[in-house]
Amino acid sequence: MSSLIKKGGLVAAGMIGYVALLFIFRQKYINWGATEEELVQPLPGDELMDHPASNHAITIHAPVEAVWPWLVQIGQDRAGFYSYSFLENLVRADIHNADRIVPEWQHLKKGDTIRLGSKEVYGDSTLLPVTELEEKQFIVLKGWGTFVLKPIDNKTTRFIIRSHGRKENWLQRILVFLFFDPIHFVMERKMLIGIKERAEKGYQPL
């Protein structure tokens, strides 16, 4: 009995510590990489959300023209999401990240859909519609958010992802706080870095 009490105490202490860390670092991971100006600037697709769930951003040392081909080909049945595919595949998403630009995946347009997980496992429940798209500027995915490329100069790009928040009941808010937001940050941060690394590696400045 005493050992069970000790184990229960350790679990409780671990949970308290985890929640405390979330409170301390929440604003850092919710808005990782984003500047104060980027947090408040209006972006395409803002009308689809009740509030911004997160703003993540990174600077890429390559021009927009070198970054866009990597972004536009995302999708489970296309180039993947350049994140931790081994974690995505724990839930049978069947994602494989590409390390090359594929010409037939470069023609995304408004009205198309992007698949998040395996059709065999999830059917079409993971399809997200492209509600807006401006070539070499932005993609808006309903159910996820807005992906924006902004040129800083002719050799540097700012890549911003604003995820869209929706109204939630108290239980959903707790689950989002404890689980979804930290996991989303880990995966989306890796996606930003994955695109940055590929774009910079493939860019050959004159």
UniProtKB/TrEMBL annotation:
Transmembrane segments: 6-25
Keywords for this protein: Membrane, Transmembrane, Transmembrane helix
Entry keyword annotation includes Transmembrane: yes
Protein's UniProt name: SRPBCC family protein
